[in-house]
Give the backbone structure.
Amino acid sequence: MSAADFVPERADLDELRQAACGCRGCELYRNATQTVFGEGPPDARVVMIGEQPGDHEDLEGHPFVGPAGRLLDRALEEAGIDRDTVYLTNAVKHFKFTERGKRRIHKTPGRTEIVACGPWLTAELARVRPEMVVCLGAVAAKAVLGADFRVTAMRGQVLELPEFRAVATMHPSSVLRDPDRERAYRDFLADLAVASRELKSA
Ligand code: URA
Ligand code: SF4
């Protein structure tokens, strides 16, 4: 099973977003509230890719609108990247979680879900055709750069791919969870600054 059966050919981003609402490419649609598709200008120079929608995103239907999104907003501003110019999406479009009492606890998507959802991400990248892709965390990095990619070893480096340049960094949620949050934030910001410099020099 995969999203491939649900991705319409020759569709623009709005048509893709519409079609993704009905995706049944893996099991995650069953318990999630809705598909959370990417958002941003269709001609964005940068695509930023997170992991999957969180609790807030699942309820609101938009990417990065919760605490991780607020941290990302702040970091983007400090790195000199205007969020309105970025196409923001996730490697996996439905929220994966377990229920603990009334709380929904995030579960990291596995290889099966990353691969199943991949056709949506591929279609988004093919429509937007960005100069730069920023992978936020290991799930996004593995989706774009391969299953063996190690963010800890390669973060903040500019990687030349055939279709775009890429920079991988930590996930903003992991910055929020880090015991040394200030240091984690500084490192995160430094990686985004690499992407920002690349864009300004291009
Ligand atoms: N974390 C993500 O990876 N994506 C979101 O949209 C929100 C939180
Ligand atoms: Fe489809 Fe992706 Fe949702 Fe799975 S997570 S149902 S592949 S949109």
